[in-house]
Amino acid sequence: MLFAYFSPKNAAPLPDTSPIAANQSWRFVIATAVAVATALCSAQYFGLKNDYWAPMSAFLILRPVAQATLARGINRLIGTLLGCVVATLLIYTFHDSLPILVFFLLLTVASALAMQRAHYGLFSFMVSATIVLLIALGHGDPIATTEHRLIATLLGGGIAITMAKIFRL
Q1: 168: how many CB neighbours lie within 10 A of its CB?
Q2: Nearest partner of 71 among 16, 27, 31, judged by Cα
Q3: φ, ψ for residue 80 (rounded to 5)?
Q4: How far apart, in whole angstroms, are the C-alpha atoms of residue 46 and residue 3?
Q5: What pLDDT, in 10s, does the model give residues 77-115?
Q6: Rounded distance between C-alpha atoms, residue 44 and residue 72, angstroms
Q7: Which domain holds residue 42?
Q8: Which of the two ends of the chain, N or C, has the fewest CB atoms closer than 10 A to its terminal CB?
Q9: Across the chain, what does the average pLDDT equal?
């Protein structure tokens, strides 16, 4: 919301809050359940580390209207990709300076909180950067984390978009 206040031209409009038809509501509920279950089973089948990222992506991307699902999926994919890449570059640039990495971590956390309702792509960017920084600060591998997060986001997003088409949302 803060981002939308200071930069309204860059903020994505908030979704329409008009009620949806009961028939469409049930299709959305069923599509969401099928998407989440399919994403989790697929992630486990492929042996993805942090397999919960795929169903979480499917759940967060799927919307009652197909256009909104597609737009949200694109925003999440681009935001996740850029957030992971930027965080990885920061980690390799400042790997010897813990205070600088902690500063960037605090910056991404605060920015993610500020972006929650302002712009989904920027929110995804900040959340992904935060996750990569957290795992790297805990002595994890930022490249592997980036890879796993992108694969899970692609899997969950692809399933969400497919379910939106199948259930004619």
Answers
A1: 9
A2: 16
A3: -65, -45
A4: 38
A5: 999 999 999 999 999 999 889 999 999 999 999 999 988
A6: 24
A7: 24-167
A8: N
A9: 88
Distances (CA, A) of 5 to 11, 12, 76, 84, 165: 9, 12, 22, 26, 34
Selection from 167, 169, 85, 97 nearest residue 128 by Cα: 85
Look at residues 82, 80, 45, 69 and name the one whose alpha carbon lies nearest to residue 160: 69
Let me know if 68 is exposed, middle or buried by CB neighbors in 10 A (0-12, 13-18, 19+): middle
> What pLDDT sits at residue 161?
94
Token representation of residue 101: 């990495």
N-term to C-term CA, the chain: 28
Does 63 reside within a domain? yes
If one counts the domains in the chain, the total is 1
Q: CB neighbours of 92 closer than 8 A, spacing ≥ 6?
A: 142
Q: Given this model, what pLDDT does residue 64 score? A: 92
Residue 9: inside a domain: no
The tokens describing 77, both together, are 């994919």
